[in-house]
Amino acid sequence: MDELFPVAPARGGDDALALLDDLFPASADRWSEGGSAWWDSFYGDPDRAIPFRDAGPDEHLAAYLAAGRLGAPGRALDLGCGTGRNAARLAAHGWEVDAVDLSGTVLATARTRVPASVRLHHGDAFTLPALTGPYDLVHDGGCFHHLPPHRRPGHLALLARVLKPGGRLTLTCFASGHPDSGSELPDAAFYRGEHAGSLHGGLAYSAEALREIFATAPASLSCEELRPMRVPSPDEGLFGAEFLWAGLFRRAA
After folding, report:
1. 57: three-class secondary structure by DSSP
2. Is cis: bond before 218, omega within 30 of 0?
3. 46-67, pLDDT tens digit by residue?
4. Is the model's pLDDT at 136 over the cut of 80?
5. How confident is the model over 57-114, as pLDDT tens digits?
6. Which of 8, 21, 18, 83 is nearest to 50 (CA)?
7. pLDDT of 14
8. Cα(173)–Cα(229) distance, rounded to whole angstroms?
9. What's residue 2's pLDDT?
10. Residue 168: C-alpha distances to residues 54, 69, 217 (Å)
11. Helices then strands, each counted (H, E), the chain
12. Beta strand pairing status for 75-79 and 135-140?
């Protein structure tokens, strides 16, 4: 980020993150508590076409659970849980689930779709004190690709803080190279020039970029699988789209 400023910002730590957040208008925020109203509007609009609104769990999460690739049921954190479709499948397989979302509107829907054992949390997953872990699994069903570049380290820090040694991350993320996916602009473009101030619907990543990002300290995750999501048949009751990555990462034991 140094190249974005002729002189380094005087503030540090959380203040530096706030400074970079301020380069985006409030209407662009999809990642902090300030973005709650946007997500409430997103989920609260009955006419908006949301392909996963009434869908089942992500196809790769369902496949990993069915094949036993996530190990014995333990504690799981569902980031950006939405309607609770992934949390419900995890609970059905015996996992103890914390599920978090910025939208109170969608959490009201989730409460009607998940068992009472699932703990629903309203707020910013990166600051909520209740999400302490340790978790055997973190499922990110679409949170990561809505973070601006300067917020990526916070995602890695969250994983390092709450994921057990040997724990796994399952990831659903916009894939580069698809017209229906997210933006492939270089990071600096979101902060300066004609494209600044918007994430343009989210960020798309190559497989190489995702492997490199999640291998970075402090998360230091190895990639066990990263493939295009499978598009399930309607009768499977699962969610999948060809413009998304399906990923499985593991923290060293």
Report:
1. coil
2. yes
3. 999 998 998 999 999 999 999 9
4. yes
5. 999 999 999 999 999 999 999 999 999 999 999 999 999 999 999 999 999 999 999 9
6. 83
7. 65
8. 9
9. 55
10. 26, 10, 15
11. 7, 7
12. parallel
Residue 188's Cβ-side half-sphere holds a number of Cα atoms within 13 Å equal to 6
**Residue 75: count of CB within 10 angstroms of its CB:** 18
Start-to-end C-alpha separation, the chain: 32
Q: Say yes or no to pLDDT of 4 above 90.
A: no
Dist CA 146 CA 94 (whole Å)? 29
CA distance 35 to 27: 8
Cβ-defined contacts of 218-221 (< 8 Å, 24+): 218/156, 218/157, 218/159, 218/160, 219/155, 219/156, 219/157, 219/159, 219/160, 219/163, 219/251, 220/160, 220/251, 220/252, 221/159, 221/169, 221/249, 221/250, 221/251
Dist. CA 176–CA 23, nearest whole Å: 25
Q: Is 79 helix (H, G, I), strand (E, B) or coil?
A: strand
Are 169 and 61 in contact, with CB atoms under 8 Å apart?
no
For residue 3, name the pLDDT band (cuts at 50, 70, 90): low
pTM of the complete model beyond 0.85: yes
Whole-number Å distance between alpha carbons of 80 and 87: 10
* Residues shown for the chain: 253
Work out the angle at residue 97's Cα, subtended by the Cα atoms of residues 96 and 99, and round it to the nearest 5 degrees. 170
How crowded is residue 215: how many other Cβ atoms within 10 Å of its Cβ?
A: 14
What pLDDT band is residue 173 in, cutting at 50, 70 and 90? very high
**pLDDT computed for residue 222 by the predictor:** 98
Q: CA nearest 52: which of 238, 209, 200, 222?
A: 238
